[in-house]
């Protein structure tokens, strides 16, 4: 199992906002919404679109390529054309530090 890795400061990501990061050779999106942090793969399950470049609305992130929406809390694909969830990674906050543990495939 992978370890928690410190990836950002809480203050690095405004609320609501997002940050694209490379963690453990994997591109992920760190999201800060309503004082909560989430982390999902920066990959749309429809056709590999860069989710981190999409529009955030509430807890939904829209793929910029064909518009599929994902729930950043669960990774679930909410709207077509995506049907499979994207990967969610574990978050830990300690003080002003944000840690991510990459979920291995
Ligand atoms: S690549 Fe994301 S909706 Fe098609």
Write a structural description:
The protein is an all-beta fold and 105 residues long. It has one domain (4-101): Rieske Iron-sulfur Protein, CATH 2.102.10. The chain is built from no helices and nine strands. The protein has strands at 4-9, 17-23, 26-33, 36-41, 56-57, 60-62, 69-71, 88-94, 97-101. A six-stranded antiparallel sheet has the order 1-9-8-4-3-2, with no helix packed on it. A three-stranded antiparallel sheet has the order 5-6-7, with no helix packed on it. A hairpin with a 2-residue loop joins strand 2 (17-23) and strand 3. The relative contact order is 0.25. The mean pLDDT is 97. The protein binds FE2/S2 (inorganic) cluster. Residues 44, 46-49, 63, 65-68, 81-82 line the site of FE2/S2 (inorganic) cluster.
Topology:
Layout: E1 4-9, E2 17-23, E3 26-33, E4 36-41, E5 56-57, E6 60-62, E7 69-71, E8 88-94, E9 97-101
Antiparallel strand pairs: 1-9, 2-3, 3-4, 4-8, 5-6, 6-7, 8-9
